[in-house]
Design a protein that fits this description.
Layout (H helix, E strand, L loop, with lengths): L13 H11 L18 E3 L2 E3 L5 E4 L2 H4 L8 H11 L13 H13 L4 E7 L2 H18 L7 E5 L8 H5 L19 E3 L8 H14 L3 E6 L3 E2 L5 E2 L3 H13 L2 E5 L23 E4 L11 E6 H4 L14 H16 L2 H16 L8 E7 L2 E6 L5 H10 L2 E2 L6 E4 L7 H17 L1
Parallel strand pairs: 3-15, 5-6, 5-7, 7-10, 10-11
Antiparallel strand pairs: 1-2, 2-3, 4-12, 8-9, 11-12, 13-14, 14-16
Helix pairs in contact: 3-10, 4-10, 7-8, 11-13, 12-13
């Protein structure tokens, strides 16, 4: 075992940690050894990340869009500390506890009214896997095992676990084209930005033709997240809802990215005021503190269904307690005005980017801002440029984008958008 260098306080020196990180620690979408050095972060509070050399960076990514309240929020810290004094974990098989029940009750209250049943898991992709299991088992239990296929539209991303990755568009995203034991998905074209009747006709044709084999349609409503941060007209959700009702297919909304206010409505489904049969939540559910996700379904789906899905940390009390505190804090704090203000500040800061060389489009919805380039981003160069401007961003493919914490100020957002413009120029 190699000897590690330590400073006078007994801690491993940062340069040693970074060298070990580069050789041994596998980061998302990265090779080994890593081509460059990761950013070392020593602490975080509010909307700022602090590096060992004393720099402070405004986090434009909100810890992968989860830290909507920022870091070290006293209400969320207190929720974790209080629960830790009672119990950190207990199995959820045959046992229940207040934090989980309280969280499920709150989620039922704030989501579309037909969603009355909650299955807790540890991550957004697993919530999607649970949703697919629900839908396929629903039809098996009703004597229609041939209804096992899932329809979705291109440009989506539902996670990198095996079943969730199957639903990702193999030709338009950072995932490999997994197929495996699940029936291959039925793909519609990516939804256009605006409402187009020809696209509606395609949806109608696909669903009506394949209704006998379709268990469900699974989509990210209004915003396709990591597949390209693209927006589409909410009226397509109405089309899907009517098609599913007419053709006896279940409708699943993956709101891991869009849930809890990010798009300007509490849930993206609210833009269309419709009820899915199943909804997947994660991301901002715990305010970025602990892993937890939830799959909610209607009574129609849940009735008589024994869901054969289990996990060690299902219903974890610590995660449930902080999730309840996070959702409650969001509802109490006037999130809608915060998101509206961030949207206006993003417009002010990103409008000048429209004239930058290589910029194809600038788009903003709620607390989401995107600069789309006409070429793939040089990620190390773009990231370094953003850091020099005082912001932490994580560009991908041909996108420089931000999903800032809702507690960001005008000055914070100005720093983020300056970093985005610098990243677009450098990338």
């Amino acid at each position: 075992m190699p000897v590690t260098a330590r400073d006078c306080s007994g801690r491993v020196a940062n340069d040693v940690l970074l060298a070990m990180d580069r050789r041994h620690v596998w980061h998302p979408h990265a090779a080994l050894p890593a081509p460059g050095r990761s950013l070392m972060v020593e602490s975080a509070s509010g909307v700022r990340l602090r590096t060992p050399d004393g720099r402070e960076l405004v986090d434009g990514m909100a810890a992968s869009w989860s830290a909507v309240h920022g870091y070290r929020h006293p209400v969320l810290d207190a929720a974790v500390t209080e629960q830790l004094g009672r119990m950190s974990h207990v199995t959820f098989g045959g046992i229940t506890h207040g934090p989980a029940v309280d969280l499920c009750r709150l989620l039922i209250e704030v989501t579309p009214e037909e969603l009355q049943h909650v299955f807790l898991s540890e991550s957004g992709p697993v919530a999607v896997e649970v949703a697919v299991t629900m839908c396929q088992q629903y039809w098996r239990d009703r004597g229609k095992p041939s209804k096992s296929r899932i329809m979705t539209w291109r440009g989506g991303h539902h996670g990198d676990t095996f079943g969730a990755a199957v639903l990702g568009d193999p030709g338009d995203g950072p995932r490999p084209p997994w197929h495996g034991p699940l029936p291959p998905p039925l793909f519609a074209d990516r939804p256009p930005d605006t409402f187009e009747h020809d696209y509606v006709a395609q949806l109608v044709r696909l669903v009506e033709t394949h209704a006998d084999e379709l268990a469900a349609i699974v989509v990210e409503p209004v915003v396709q997240g990591r597949g390209g941060v693209r927006f589409h007209d909410p009226r397509y959700l109405h089309v899907l809802r009517e098609l599913c009702l007419a053709c006896d297919v279940l409708l699943v909304f993956d709101e891991v990215y869009t849930g809890f206010g990010r798009t300007g409505e509490l849930f993206a489904a609210d833009h269309a005021a419709i009820q899915p049969d199943v909804m997947c939540l994660g991301g901002a559910l715990t305010g970025g503190y602990l892993p937890m996700a939830a799959t909610l379904c209607s009574g129609r789906v849940a009735h008589g269904l024994t869901l054969r899905h289990d996990a060690t940390f299902m219903g974890n009390p610590l995660a449930a307690a902080v999730a309840h505190a996070s959702v409650s804090l969001l509802l109490e704090r006037g999130w809608r005005s915060e998101v509206k203000a961030i949207a206006s500040w993003l417009r002010a800061g990103l409008t000048p980017a429209r004239s930058l060389p290589g910029v194809r489009e600038v788009r903003i919805l709620g607390a989401i801002g995107v600069i789309e380039l006409d070429h793939d981003v040089d990620v190390p160069a773009a990231t370094s440029a953003a850091v020099l401007a005082g912001a932490w961003l994580r560009p991908m493919r041909n996108l420089v984008y931000t999903v800032p914490p809702f507690v960001s100020t005008r000055a914070d957002v100005a720093t983020i958008t300056a970093g985005m413009r610098a990243a677009a120029l450098a990338g």
